Amino acid sequence: MTETRIDRTGLTATPNNEGVDAAVAAARRVIDALLHSGDMSAVEMTQVAEQLNAVADHLEAHAPTVGERMVDMWRGEGVTRHDPVTGPENAIAPPLRLYGRDDGSIEGEVVLGMPYQGPPGCVHGGVSALLLDHTLGVANAWAGTSGMTGTLTLRYHRPTPLFERLTVTGRQTSVDGRKIYTTGTITAGGQVCVTAEGLFIDKQLDRPR
Amino acid sequence: MTETRIDRTGLTATPNNEGVDAAVAAARRVIDALLHSGDMSAVEMTQVAEQLNAVADHLEAHAPTVGERMVDMWRGEGVTRHDPVTGPENAIAPPLRLYGRDDGSIEGEVVLGMPYQGPPGCVHGGVSALLLDHTLGVANAWAGTSGMTGTLTLRYHRPTPLFERLTVTGRQTSVDGRKIYTTGTITAGGQVCVTAEGLFIDKQLDRPR
User: Fold this and answer.
1) Chain A neighbours among B 170-189 (CB < 8 Å)?
2) Can you give the pLDDT at residue B42?
3) How many structural domains are present in chain A?
4) ipTM score of complex
5) pLDDT tens-digit profile of A62-78?
6) Residue B31, number of CB atoms within 10 A of its CB
7) Preceding omega of B95 cis (within 30 degrees of 0)
């Protein structure tokens, strides 16, 4: 079996470890720690709420208008930094980083913790759908013809474990006029947990200017 | 057209506005404000990162072990408080609150902001999938026979707007042995944006004890 070569330049935004990316990474720690604490925690949560509200107040007071921010976040044609799957500026995103393989497919690895739980100890089925929908979109961009999701079908083969290394893959399989067909998988320990098939339509919404 | 009556007791956890729920609500404000600020913000993000890391350090230092927390969060048989769609303890959750209707279906309303963006100004297709997967599961619980997602098919009819009131519905349509069939929709301003069909299998993973 020959090794598939991976292009380590990355198809998704690279976190800076400074500026807003560092603040977002810290926010991810807070989200996770709140779930690990729960309501039985010995921590005085009223004080935690006050501290977090003070941070939010400060940020909101200095934020640009939504219109200005939308233009800024969609500037250029490069990878997005704010989406809920790969975005270094979005604390909801794990974030997943995706790389192109020389066979035309893409892959990424991620470990999902408490915020992404569905059944006990397992990844929420809808979170797997979120990761795969986005990965199929990036696979299309990597293949050169991308669009918007028309139909997405997910098959859940076995529970996807939390706290373990998952491999997420995507591959554009064919293009027929404006129809784009794309598949993807989530595997854990070499076993397929979830597969996805997507039909995408070759169109884009205008970016705000 | 007769009005469908809604049972306002709710099928999902009710936020407390105190304790961990209040801290999580504040964390949601931080997530949102960080996206509204972006890297062009006038705010000194290094200081924000330090403040958030200090909160995370404090929470982590007082958190129970993962094993203890898992048993605690899955205690009882009631609605979960930690899932990434409806959970008052999960800052990733909008949260969506769902209610039973007297025709056997369920519904909820939600406005999604910047953290849930996919295409410019629109909800990420994978976020719609996340909301619908969970809503179909709650619809099954409301109907009395629930299980794990086997296959989920999503159809995207038109872009789902950010910043507008969305209605999310779910309905169990039939049960055939261990197979459960369930549908759902996301509508905005009376127009259908996304539809979902799910095949669920009547089984549950054991809760940690």
Assistant:
1) none
2) 72
3) 1
4) 0.94
5) 999 999 999 989 987 77
6) 23
7) yes
Is B6 at the interface with chain A, CB within 8 A? no
Single-letter amino acid, residue A98 = L
**CB-CB under 8 Å, A82 with B62:** no
Looking at the domain assignment, is residue A86 inside a domain? no
Rg of chain B (C-alpha set):
19
**The token pair that represents A189 in the structure block:** 């320990």
- Check CB contact of A111 with chain B, cutoff 8 Å: no
Chain A interface disruption, residue of B17, B59, B155, most A CBs within 10 A: B59
Instruction: For chain A, give the percent of residues with pLDDT over 70.
Output: 95
User: Across residues B64-84, what is the average pLDDT?
Assistant: 88
Position B91 scores a pLDDT of 98
Residue of A36, A162, A182, A205 for testing the chain B interface, max B β-carbons within 10 Å: A36
B53 contacts A17 by C-beta, under 8 angstroms: no
| Closest alpha carbon within chain A to B69 | A36
Residue B137 is part of which domain span?
1-209
CATH of the domain at A169: 3.10.129.10
CB A182 within 8 A of CB A198: yes
A22 closest CB neighbour out of B46, B89, B205: B46
Tens digit of pLDDT for each residue in A35-65?
Answer: 999 876 777 999 999 999 999 999 999 999 9
A108, part of any domain: yes
Residue A80 resides in a domain: no
